[in-house]
Amino acid sequence: MKILVLNAGSSSQKSSLYSIDGELPNQSPEPLWEATIDWAHHPGFAEIKVKTATTEVKEDIEVKSRLDIMAHLLSMLWQGKTAVLSHASEIDVVGHRVVQGGQEYSEPVRIDQTVKETIDRLSTLAPSHNPANLEGIQAIEKFLGTEIPQIAVFDTAFHRQIPDAAAIYPVPYAWVEQGIRRYGFHGISHQYCAHRAAQLLQRNLEDLRLIVCHLGNGCSLSAVAQGHSIDTTMGFTPLDGLMMGTRSGSVDPGVLIHLMRQGYSVDRLDRELNKESGLKGISGVSADLRQVMEAIEAGHAQAQLALDIYVHRLRSYIASMLASLGGVDALIFTAGVGENSAIVRSLACESFQFLGLALDSQKNESRPIDQDIATSDSKIRVLVIHTQEDWAIAAECYRLQSKL
Ligand code: ADP
Fold it and tell me: How far is it, in rounded angstroms, from Cα 135 to Cα 99?
């Protein structure tokens, strides 16, 4: 089965083509073809990068219409140096990452007219994401035809079973009736890591209590019990919870009221909280932890403060997930920071030594991937897992298609 995965964000789009024959493998095979479109590479131009086992191609293209660029990108699957198919019709199914599935979707779903209308309606909850996801769906219909099965895999779905006590904000009930509640995000990654953790630990997922720390540009935690998320740190939007690269995470809503009374516009608050806060806002150096760490080495006080806040919040929220679960079998680190920063892992774990959690510092510093980095006598396992969102989407497509 040839599965094309589209993972569209507001400013970039990743695509991968997987080929699965026979049994679904436990681990991600290398995609046959991988591509990214960076829509805002420089004003008016998009950058397309395509990689296959034998070739890498980079092109700068003027953006007259995003759909034309998507058409061009798709044609690179069967034309030119990056071709891995002889014809478009070899693609069996297309899977899309859809950010906001609201209260409607707790599972991946085959896309039809109703699903498209629902994703469109939910755009009010995710204005910079759902429209880009719909655009991808429409591009496939236009260029590969309406007959090709398309599947939506939602970033919120894994969190749909979070109990109301954890999901509902204590606000006037009329707000709750409008759909204002905690949806949670990064669900595809959290779910993938929970399954992979069970494999690595050779345990039944049903029997495990896990805390997944997805620490990338965006950061969120999930508390996973019996294979379901029962609590998470992101909320109504991906702005809630942990400190992130450029996003603030939780702030007292009273601060926003105060600033609005001073004349701050909604757009300014939106921009400053989403793009000018977090590691970037506090350090004044960068949203990238690597550069913040370099600045710390050079004695930069604000960079040190940024790391201190990042770690303080990470520890506090891990403790919060721990309380929701009533204990934990394994703590999992994933995404750019989680997979690469030994120092963040070690600082986060330091606070939980009183629970018998012991990190093996050599393993922690040995660039572990899909490994247990706790000491053999640690009461809590600590795993570093390379998240594979696109593969997880492909696997969901395979499962749904194989059921038909
Ligand atoms: P996204 O959330 O956009 O998918 P990633 O999961 O790729 O992002 O995470 C990107 C972030 O990971 C970078 O901004 C950087 O801060 C961090 N990162 C990547 N490599 C390292 C590293 N070796 N050490 C510390 N941080 C790293």
Answer: 13
